[in-house]
Amino acid sequence: MKKFTGLLLFLLAGMLFAETIDVTKSEGTNQSIITSLTPAPASPEVDANITVEAVFNEALNPMSTMHSVTLKHITGKKKRWGMFGFGISRSKNKTIQGSITYDQNENTLYFTPDQPLEVGFYKVSFRHLMKKVPGMHMRIKPIVYHFYVPEVINGFKLPPEPDEDKNNATLLGIDFNHNGIRDDVERWIIIHYANDLKYPKTKTAIALQYAWASQKILENPTMESKKYLDDAIDCQYYWFHTKTQNMSGFEAGQFHAKNKVFNDPILKDKIYNNRERIEQKFRFNAALSGNIFDGRNESIENCRTNIDELGE
């Protein structure tokens, strides 16, 4: 009975295990006949109103293009375990309705969805295409790849929630959209500061720059990385100066205290959330210890995002 119970628990655990979607997985995307693919394979930040395009350097048989493109929204992926321990992956896909057109002058195949795409992972497939060769049927190999449509909050694109174990298994964690900020930190910043009633965009931009600088410090905890943190701090103080230049000293002090981003202990705890990352921060502090630094002038040039253009 105990053995049976153990086996049952093992099977249930396998059924509940969610497998991460590999957006880099593709097929046939490097064929010489392909000039370009839009969105590009493994794109992490695709607009919801995208039209899928494939440009070829040779003409296609128009008849072969009529039902050649499918776009599927991957709404879930589960791994189930068979009775003999074999893993079986099952994807939950929603086929996206849309129209297919082929421009013979430009050798370009289009798939236009009927509706804006929802947030999530997508798989696009081009199949059964043939070159336009008189008297011959020269089939093109299938073209299959994935991309991701992110949620957009105040103009900032939210990466997907990373797997916690994988994200914390390495020093730098997961950076799905390759912008230099760990995904769990980026998500927290965008969602958290969206609740700010007056300056959600500005605080998000400054906090993201701080997180980007902190990632640089984790990667290289030396004096050379100090400039990134200095720029982030100076960007914040440039914003403070811009907003408080017509205030009294008391009002300016209140504004500073209320709107500081870098003093948020939750943000710092989110960035330095395990022993390895905390130790890297200590190494950075040790590298700076005992040095005397010159003052700096705050300007918009210190900001990675032009906060003057955010409309706040």
TrEMBL record:
It holds the Pfam family Big_5. Residues 33-118 form the SbsA Ig-like domain. The keyword Signal applies. The keyword Signal applies. Keywords: Signal. This is SbsA Ig-like domain-containing protein.
